[in-house]
Specification:
- The chain contains eleven helices and 17 strands.
- It is α+β, with helices and mostly antiparallel strands.
- Among the domains are: about 5-70, SH3 type barrels (Roll), CATH 2.30.30; about 230-370 and about 380-450, Gcn5-related N-acetyltransferase (GNAT) (Aminopeptidase, 3-Layer(aba) Sandwich).
- It has a five-stranded antiparallel beta sheet, sandwiched between helices. A four-stranded antiparallel beta sheet has the order 1-2-3-4, with no helix packed on it.
- The termini are far apart.
- It binds acetyl coenzyme *A (ACO) and zinc ion (ZN).
- It is found in: Nucleus.
Length: about 450
């Protein structure tokens, strides 16, 4: 029998202990990242090893199997965090962080993911709050333009990196209200510290300004001039519109979008210089206005031919095909530019799933549309032609064909063979894509940013 009161004192940050999963579905090895007391009761912020960080949560001692408590391993060094642009670089792992899991493992083995990650209501957790930015705190003033003050660049140095890592590893915003949705954040985002202690952070769904109470939001909405994102509407079909926003011209909107996106993006660092980026916001229109469904950012000039920096579908709209609509849109822009493109790496687990699915379906669509010639000869197509037709970079075409196991060596040459089953799966998958981008509805000309001096 474990004496809870005694063992409680032995639970320190960095301990490893099995924790009962939220749906009661067995125990999972976990690491204690932080500890807090609320009304005399201890709560422990834990990371489920091998699972994505979005599942991390505060748990009471009762959810822990204390008979298997392990003290932290000593002598672990913390690497220095790297810096980057909007979605440009990786947040380094803390020295004790578990390795990231493969998408398959996380999605298929962890049945709780949907309820945890995508819930739009859920029980609220009380949070003592944490400040990732110390002296760089911003003051919230809903009636002034204080929200547009960019945060100062981060300091470097291992102590700061270590401090930032511990802080940014933990979710800091409890819940957001966004339009008609209440959404539980997945990751840390550098909203001002005083807002992270609130049970709900209110965000105007049109201008993305953040507010501390429902009353403030109400007052704000009465005078908010936006009913859609700023910038040019470059696409409209049925209820779907896409707006192009210049990160220099609409800096405040772009910064607010980055803050919001960071709540659901783990591995990208936000930097508040949005000037070098364009943002493509996909909205669904109704009588009230244009509701943000998702967006992607794109560098104005990319030496590596990246056509997407960050991509996000707002959680209430996820798993409905919008991710692929956004990806399709990014490739339609590349087609107009007469370029091939690829998303910026690293991809998140869900990003990889979505891109793999889009690439597979798009390439299979091309292959199945190849008609035999008059003499009934089998159609011939090169990797280069597939890449030109789709704007998907050659490396991604090759990796997709390999992933689908379509390339075979036959009589001295490589051929692509499709089984009947693959053809049927593809037909079913295409039938399930209700929204497709119609290139005729895209009204857009690329700009030559190299000729514009400093954007
Ligand atoms: N579990 C299992 N499969 C999933 C999940 C999930 N939670 N979410 C999406 N998928 C699969 C879908 O089943 C679909 O596959 P299928 O065609 O084989 O059925 C595929 O991924 C795409 O689904 P969509 O509905 O088109 O995509 P969605 O609207 O859900 O958006 C996105 C995908 C943008 C990655 C979304 O999950 C998201 O915003 N995640 C958080 C931010 C993120 O990780 N962005 C990508 C970072 S990488 C980068 O920015 C370049
Ligand atoms: Zn507003």
């Amino acid at each position: 029998m474990v004496n809870m009161a005694e063992v409680k004192n032995e639970i320190v940050e960095g301990c490893h202990v099995p924790v009962l999963l939220p749906n009661g579905d067995g125990w999972h090895a976990s690491e204690v990242l932080s500890i807090k007391e609320i009304n005399g009761k201890s709560l422990f912020y834990i990371h489920y090893e091998d699972y994505n960080k979005r599942l991390d949560e505060w748990v009471p001692i009762e959810r822990m199997d204390l008979s298997k408590l392990e003290q932290p391993k000593k002598d672990i060094k913390t690497p220095i965090k790297k810096e980057g642009g909007v979605g440009a670089s990786r947040i380094s792992n803390g020295g004790t962080e578990s390795r990231p899991c493969s998408p398959e493992r996380e999605i298929y083995e962890n049945g709780t993911m949907q309820s945890l990650g995508l819930s739009n209501s859920g029980a609220m957790k009380v949070h003592t709050g944490c400040d990732g930015f110390g002296s760089r705190k911003r003051k919230l003033d809903e009636d002034t333009d204080s929200q547009d003050a960019p945060l100062a660049p981060r300091q470097t140095g291992s102590m700061v990196a270590h401090h930032d890592d511990i802080i940014t590893r933990m979710k800091n915003v409890n819940l957001i209200e966004f339009g008609k949705w209440r959404i539980k954040p997945w990751y840390f985002s550098p909203y001002p510290q005083e807002l992270t202690t609130l049970p709900i952070l209110y965000i105007c769904e049109y201008c993305l300004k953040y507010l501390k109470s429902a009353k403030c939001l109400e007052r704000h909405l009465a005078k908010c001039l936006y009913k859609h994102p700023p910038g040019n509407e470059i696409y409209r079909k049925d209820k779907i519109s896409v707006f192009e926003i210049d990160g220099r011209k609409n800096k405040q909107y772009a910064q607010h979008l980055c803050l919001l996106a960071k709540l659901f993006l783990d591995h990208k660092t936000l930097y508040f210089d949005t000037d070098p980026f364009l943002f493509y916001c996909l909205c669904e229109q109704d009588a009230q206005g244009y509701h943000l469904v998702g967006f992607f950012s794109k560098e104005k000039e990319s030496a590596e031919d990246f056509n997407v920096a960050c991509i996000l579908t707002m959680p209430p709209y996820q798993r409905m095909g919008y991710g692929k609509v956004l990806i399709e849109f990014s490739y339609e822009l590349s087609k107009v530019e007469c370029k091939t493109g690829s998303p910026e790496k690293p991809l998140s687990d869900l990003g990889l799933l979505s891109y793999r699915s889009y690439w597979s379906q798009t390439i299979l669509e091309i292959l199945l549309n190849l008609k035999p010639n008059e003499s009934g000869e089998r159609p011939c197509i090169t990797i280069h032609e597939i890449s030109e037709l789709t704007s998907i970079k050659k490396d991604d075409v090759i990796s997709t064909l390999q992933h689908l196991n379509l390339i075979n060596y036959y009589k001295g040459q490589y051929i692509i063979t499709l089984s009947d089953e693959q053809i049927q799966t593809q037909e079913r998958a295409m039938a399930k894509r209700p929204i497709r981008i119609d290139p005729k509805c895209l009204h857009w000309q690329p700009k030559d940013w190299s000729k514009r001096g400093k954007w």
